[in-house]
Amino acid sequence: MCTLNLSEYDTTTSFPADTIEAHDAVPFCKKCGNQEAQVFLKNKNEYCKRCFLIILRHKFRATLSKSKSVHTNDSILVAHSGKANSTLLLHLITTDMNESISKKLQFSFKVLYIDDGIVKGRSIKERESIQSALAKEAENLQLTMYILPLSNCVTDSICEEMQLANAPLMNMTSENTIVQEIFDNLENDTAKDELLQQLRLKLLVSAARKLNCNKIFIADASVDLAVKVLGNVSTGRGSQLPFNVAFSDTRYKDVTLLRPLRDFTRDDITGYLECYNLHPIFNCDKYNSSFPASIRNVTRNFVYKLDSEFHSTVPTIYRTSEKLAAKRMECENSNTKIDDNVNSDNNICVLCELTSDSSYLSKEQPSVAQAKLFSKLVSTVADTSLNMATNSLNIHELSSNEQIKSINASKEEKHQCQNDIHKSILKQSIIEKYLCYGCRLIFLNSKQIDNILPNFISNAIKKKSQIAHLEKEISDFLL
Amino acid sequence: MPIPCSRQCGKKAILKRPKTGHALCKECFFYAFESEIHNTITQGKLFKPGDKVAIGASGGKDSTVLAYVLKTLNERHQYGIDLFLLSIDEGITGYRDDSLKTVQQNKDDYGLPLKILSYKELYGWTMDEIVAEIGKKNNCTFCGVFRRQALDRGAAFLGVDCIATGHNADDIAETVLMNILRGDIARLQRCTSIITAGADCIRRCKPLKYAYEKEIVMYAYFKQLVYFSTECVFAPNAYRGHARTYLKDLERIRPSSILDIIHSGETLQVKEGIKLPERRNCSRCGFVSSQEICKACIMLEGLNRGLPKLGIGKSTKVKRALESIAKDKCNDKCNGKCKDNEQIDEKDLEF
Ligand SMILES: [Zn+2]
Ligand SMILES: [Zn+2]
Ligand SMILES: [Zn+2]
Ligand SMILES: [Zn+2]
Ligand SMILES: [Zn+2]
């Protein structure tokens, strides 16, 4: 448990005399009782600055120690977004590091900023000024901070060179623009925002590996987690909640994602920043403007509104998510179970690297996945053979038959575009095969499906299909 | 230039499907809409031949379309089910007049039998009589509790095998969201099931589970089905109102969101080791209850003994405890939520 020595803080924080007169009854700090309250929280708690900061520090340490997930000699990569949360997290860790040896957090850390300005429509000038602000922050806090442009995710060797924030400005004009093309081809803000989140995560994990970090700190506060819960549910990622909002996300074998600010409220964060007079590089308004019509943004507005009207909503939402898990498939016989283990790697989505949720659904029961396929079928196919009399249709089979049919049909009709159609249908089925329900939605209605898949996805798909092929060849000899 | 129907039937499209975005002609829309419901019914094995199926009918758009489509499909595909309309009359003067008139109309138009059960028949009391006993202030507690059970009681009374309700995809998505906001994991786990049933309770099913509200309205419009617009005088409570607006916003920016939310619900379950409130059956009436004796039975007992506000009164300590539990629960449940029940009507979202 956290036991902080109170005397290490400056106790002479004083109020100007006239302020006290203006409010005839200035309340006292709820914790120490002898200082006037300076921080007023929405839950009606009032503290003096010193106590408030002690409480936050305690909260942070308690989260880490309760879970016992950070150990001596851990090397941690802190994801820095330039926004309030991670600005606080960096400050919190650095000031903790400066404490006496006995209380010091026993791990080393590095910081990574992913520059996604290219897809957020930031000018080179803006991005350069962001970089110099980061360099300044790194210098002030004496951090090792790296900057990684998002465009790195489409190059074959992710994170070839890790650039330090205080290195000379990188040359952004020569930057790879494939990533921009990929984003331009996506259907809408939601698809763009979702892909960005996934790519950022990929980069973050690759960078951690490159920098020999075994853990990553993500600065999600409670309200961010509530936004993620509803955002996940609304984009068909409900079964991924145990990873996407958990304190500890263990989807990668070698790198663990941790969310040490999960119990911090919005008040805590603004209070902390005010107490230390910290100014995040991005303020909220600027942040919100990136993909305004995305589900995440709409969800954020909704949660913030609820949060200001009903104080208990945010904790209720994220505590609810803690009690949920992906549905277990009820196996009729034990054979299916063994099969599942063998093929478990095949059920991993190549983008988010979580188990594809189609494996949670029984084929016999009606499900959204099947209802969607059926809707598409009855809205596009004139064939009367799939008339309503057809009992217990196998939709999957039917729809692939239909795909083949439509390929054939298009071959007859227009020879010149046969290849394109063939390709696009192939890509469509690849998307369905190797991506989870949520990731599929990102690419579903993209304008040009052909060059839309980032390299690493295509590579992962190639590798998977090769392995599947090999498995088939040796299947007779597997016991 | 006219847009051709995407089923390549040769006709020109007159609508864009809210659910999929496909442009369809009128006939192909009917075909698609009905096929989807038929598919839900057969795949979900909602009915067995010979089943006596009650359609919970309020006269609203969902139950009107449900009644029409079920009758059509039953004839077309020989489900062999015995369909009828079941309405509940709470006995509030003037309140049900219009909606019952609509249900009457449905009965005549579709040639389906109609059974109207009153609170008087189900509970021995009309809402008007209850209000006279307890005053206007507490009646919401009663209507909420009684309404939740009315369809089940009615169905049991009539020896029904299955109740089909008009919950559509929008309703279910909204319920998923509400249960997350409320932290009600037990209901969250249940609410996306297409069939729900208690121990010896009557099956409840939702044939419109994957049907979009907008398409239900479209279907009613093009089929010229008469329904009673259940625009309610009561505003939904602030919470549900926000959730509803949020869902509409989501649908606007990505129409599949409604289904995507249901998909999330379908692939989630409560973690192992997390305790859920036990569901059992009331020892008096046998309906699903979280207590030994259900709230409805406790309240009825109180009414019948002339102690409406006290529930079953002071005879024993056990009963007093029961009563106070029931009362507390009702009070916090009904905090404005009762108005919701009014609005959602027979489709009480307490599944
Ligand atoms: Zn204090
Ligand atoms: Zn995925
Ligand atoms: Zn047509
Ligand atoms: Zn009420
Ligand atoms: Zn009972």
TrEMBL record, chain A:
Entry GO terms, CC: cytosol
Presence of the UniProt keyword NADP in the record: no
Keywords: Cytoplasm, tRNA processing
Major place of residence: cytoplasm
Family: Belongs to the CTU2/NCS2 family.
GO molecular function annotation: nucleotidyltransferase activity; sulfurtransferase activity; tRNA binding
Annotated function: Plays a central role in 2-thiolation of mcm(5)S(2)U at tRNA wobble positions of tRNA(Lys), tRNA(Glu) and tRNA(Gln). May act by forming a heterodimer with NCS6/CTU1 that ligates sulfur from thiocarboxylated URM1 onto the uridine of tRNAs at wobble position.
A Pfam family that the UniProt record links to this protein: CTU2
Entry-linked PANTHER family: CYTOPLASMIC TRNA 2-THIOLATION PROTEIN 2
Origin organism lineage: Eukaryota, Metazoa, Ecdysozoa, Arthropoda, Hexapoda
InterPro entries in alphabetical order: CTU2 (IPR019407), Rossmann-like_a/b/a_fold (IPR014729)
Species this protein is from: Frieseomelitta varia
Entries under HAMAP family matching the protein: CTU2 (MF_03054)
Pathway: tRNA modification; 5-methoxycarbonylmethyl-2-thiouridine-tRNA biosynthesis
Single biological process term from Gene Ontology: tRNA wobble position uridine thiolation
Subcellular localization, as worded in the UniProt entry: Cytoplasm
Keyword hit for tRNA processing: yes
Name of the protein in its database record: Cytoplasmic tRNA 2-thiolation protein 2
UniProtKB/TrEMBL annotation, chain B:
Principal location: cytoplasm
Similarity comment text for this entry: Belongs to the TtcA family. CTU1/NCS6/ATPBD3 subfamily.
Cytoplasmic tRNA 2-thiolation protein 1 C-terminal domain sequence ranges: 280-310
Enzyme class per UniProt: transferase
A GO CC annotation given for this chain: cytosolic tRNA wobble base thiouridylase complex
One GO MF term: nucleotidyltransferase activity
Residues binding ATP, per UniProt: 56-58, 62, 88, 166, 171
Record domain tRNA(Ile)-lysidine/2-thiocytidine synthase N-terminal: where: 52-229
PROSITE patterns: UPF0021 (PS01263)
Pathway assigned to this chain's UniProt record: tRNA modification; 5-methoxycarbonylmethyl-2-thiouridine-tRNA biosynthesis
Keyword Cytoplasm applies: yes
Key words, A-Z: ATP-binding, Cytoplasm, Nucleotide-binding, RNA-binding, Transferase, tRNA processing, tRNA-binding
Keyword Signal belongs to the record: no
EC assignment: 2.7.7.-
Function: Plays a central role in 2-thiolation of mcm(5)S(2)U at tRNA wobble positions of tRNA(Lys), tRNA(Glu) and tRNA(Gln). Directly binds tRNAs and probably acts by catalyzing adenylation of tRNAs, an intermediate required for 2-thiolation. It is unclear whether it acts as a sulfurtransferase that transfers sulfur from thiocarboxylated URM1 onto the uridine of tRNAs at wobble position.
InterPro entries: CTU1-like_ATP-bd, CTU1_C, Ncs6/Tuc1/Ctu1, Rossmann-like_a/b/a_fold, TilS/TtcA_N, tRNA_thiolation_TtcA_Ctu1, UPF0021_CS
Localisation per UniProt entry: Cytoplasm
Example GO BP: protein urmylation
Name used for this protein in its record: Cytoplasmic tRNA 2-thiolation protein 1
